[in-house]
Design goal:
Elements (H helix, E strand, L loop, with lengths): L1 H11 L2 H9 L6 E2 L5 E2 L6 H27 L4 H10 L7 H21 L3 H23 L4 H19 L5 H9 L1 H19 L7 H21 L3 H24 L5 H16 L1
Antiparallel strand pairs: 1-2
């Protein structure tokens, strides 16, 4: 039983942190070389740093796993909204495709670099759900064959990126392009919202979760990868998601074009009567 607990704990922390928490029972204070507890205010700096570093690493790992768990369903409300309405009204297809590319490039860059799954695992589930959204938007415009070809083309792209066929230098270059791709993709959706005066079929739950997840990913990326490119990418993602979230809040109580049109027709009918 102890061995099982240890294996589970080591999945979340390093051997040094495991010893610090489970063998030395050192949670809030440092421990002197002689083994006696010393109040945190006067502990030697090295022992204090170990405790803080372990806590930050554990928090980062926990956040990363929580984000991955949330990502399994984060875009499902959006998918369901499209399926229920049988329409992709208000959803900018170019924005969705660019978002999909940004997610996929990020996934491939991290996977091929060998970074911990907790640092990028959510990208796997986000990619699956985003390709579903794009395919559904295409499908409900009456282009069924194109929707199927889109999915097949995407699977081919992912094979090329993650099978070792793509050199690491190319992946680095692609990842560096992620920031403008991501910003153009997200902000094109924001522009569509602005022109329509509504967020259309955008799901509030999805928008909120995407914003919260991108904020948390800044911290986990600093802790688990230290990769400046990834950190800046998530900062850009947070900004773009924040713009869409602010629009969602702003347009929440404002009727969309379809509602306005229905009200206008109803008023005209009453006037004619």
């Amino acid at each position: 039983m102890t061995e099982i607990i240890k294996k589970g704990a080591l999945f979340l922390m390093s051997e040094k942190c495991y010893d610090n928490y489970f063998l030395e029972h050192n949670f809030l204070h440092g421990r002197s070389p002689g083994g006696a507890f010393i109040p945190g205010i006067v502990i030697p700096i090295i022992f204090s740093l170990i405790t803080v570093a372990c806590f930050k690493a554990l928090l980062s790992k926990g956040l990363g796993l929580a984000i991955i768990a949330g990502s399994v369903l984060v875009k499902v409300p959006q998918v369901m909204k499209i399926l229920n309405s049988k329409s992709g009204e208000g959803i900018n297809l170019m924005g969705v495709v660019l978002d999909l590319l940004a997610i996929s490039f990020h996934l491939s860059y991290n996977f091929m670099h060998g970074y911990p799954f907790s640092a990028w695992g959510d990208s796997t589930f986000l990619a699956v759900q985003t390709v579903a959204i794009a395919a559904l938007v295409i499908f409900f415009t009456g282009k069924r064959a194109q929707a199927a070809l889109f999915v097949l083309g995407y699977l081919g792209l992912m094979f090329v990126l993650n099978s070792g066929l793509t050199p690491m230098k190319v992946l680095f270059t692609i990842q560096s392009c992620n920031i403008p791709i991501l910003l153009v993709g997200k902000l094109s959706q924001a522009y569509t919202n602005y022109n329509a005066g509504s967020t259309g079929q955008l799901s509030a739950a999805t928008v909120i979760l995407m914003f919260v997840g991108s904020v948390a990913r800044i911290f986990t990326s600093i802790q688990e990868t230290g990769d400046t490119m990834i950190i800046v990418t998530f900062m850009a993602s947070t900004f773009a998601n924040g713009v869409i979230l602010s629009q969602l809040i702003y347009y929440w109580y404002k009727p969309g074009p379809a509602v306005k049109e229905a009200k206008a027709k109803k008023a005209k009918t009453k006037k004619d009567d």
